[in-house]
Amino acid sequence: MNHGWIYHDRIDRSTAGVTVLHYYSQRYAHSTVQEWQARIEQGQVRLNDRPVTAETRLQPGQRLSYHRPPWQEPTVPLDFEILYEDADLLVVAKPSELPVLPGGGFVEHTVLWQLQQRYPDQTPVPIHRLGRGTSGLLLLARSPLAKTHLSQQLRDRTLRKTYRALIAASALPDRLIVNQAIGKLPHPTLGYIYAATESGFDAHSEIEVIQRDRTSTLLNVTILTGRPHQIRIHLSAIGYPLLGDPLYTVGGIPRLETNPITHKIPVPGDCGYALHAYQLEFVHPRSQQPLHLTCIPPVPLRKTGE
User: Fold this and answer.
1) How many Cα atoms within 13 Å fall on the side-chain side of residue 64?
2) Gyration radius of the chain's alpha carbons
């Protein structure tokens, strides 16, 4: 069992006037109205740190908090290798299935929590995110200088990230660029989800075919933008979803029907797809020297003889 968690929300003008029960049941539809009613009656929900009733109407600026009791988190690999470390930086090899940040039922079974136990005085801060099912290089800042400089490199698109990806046998050219915009679509349980859209955030992926066989195509995909689920969306948008992707299908659109095995609607945190953060290239924030880091891919994502 973990130690529980407190989820915080601040009320803005768009949600002012609704009841506490309506707010939670509409905003967090992963639970039923009856479940939220019971939590409120049990005192798990507080308004401005005080007990509240389900019928209380909310006002702008108020603070809601849901005090979730301890629960058993799903079993995931918690060990990871540190590939680079100095006073400013930390680079770890994240295993697939281990989330980076709390969310989706995970708090202590995350990279961030595990690092808090190792570095209690100043926990490293992730500069970018990896999906739960993605393995490989995760860059974190250990100093304010590093956080500022690396974040700026992300904004300037000078921090290059190259991934290994596996798709079905394809007729893709050896090299191509995908600039499909990525935006939000409605989702029945999450509220919204990112997908290929006509308008949205610009996104740029450079794809290189590095090996082909009868059943699969191995790719290097370099991204300068870091939109949510960018590689998964871009590859499915051009007709080749990642092998094993339970969510994104041809066209870059998420599946919204219930999975017949799990009896749930797929969400981004579901694993099974073949994606690995293979290389990172950036400038060290203190020395100003270029760094090029590589993380050996799992066997299905290696070239023959690699």
Assistant:
1) 27
2) 21
Task: State the DSSP H helix or E strand holding residue 146, giving kind and residue range, or none if neither.
Answer: helix 144-156
- What's the rounded mean pLDDT across residues 217-235? 97
Q: Name, in order, each residue with C-beta under 8 angstroms of 291's C-beta and a sequence gap of 6 or more.
A: 84, 280, 281, 282, 283, 284
Q: pTM for this structure?
A: 0.91
Phi and psi angles of residue 119, each rounded to the nearest 5 degrees, phi first = -125, 70
The predicted structure's pLDDT at residue 259? 86
Contacts of 35-39 with C-beta under 8 Å, sequence gap 24+, read 39/66
Three-state secondary structure call for residue 173: coil
> Residue 305: what pLDDT?
87
Separation of alpha carbons 64 and 53, rounded Å: 12
Contact 173, 163 (CB under 8 A): no
Q: What is the pLDDT of residue 260?
A: 86
Q: d(Cα 232, Cα 211) in Å, to the nearest integer? A: 19
Contact predicate 149/140, CB 8 Å: no
Domains of the chain: 5-68 (3.10.290.10), 74-156 (3.30.2350.10), 158-273 (3.30.2350.10)
DSSP code string of 41-79: HTT-EEETTEE--TTPBP-TT-EEEEEEPP--PPP----
Region 240-269: mean pLDDT is 94
CA–CA distance, 6 with 285 (Å, rounded to integer): 34
* pLDDT tens digit sequence for 183-201: 999 998 888 999 999 999 9
- Residue 240 CB burial class (10 angstroms; 0-12, 13-18, ≥19): buried
What is the pLDDT at residue 30?
Answer: 82
Give the pair of three-digit tokens for residue 38.
């019971």
What's the full length of the chain, in residues?
306
**How far is residue 194's CA from residue 238's CA, in Å, rounded to a whole number?**
16
Q: Which residues contact 191 (CB under 8 A, 6 or more apart)?
A: 27, 29
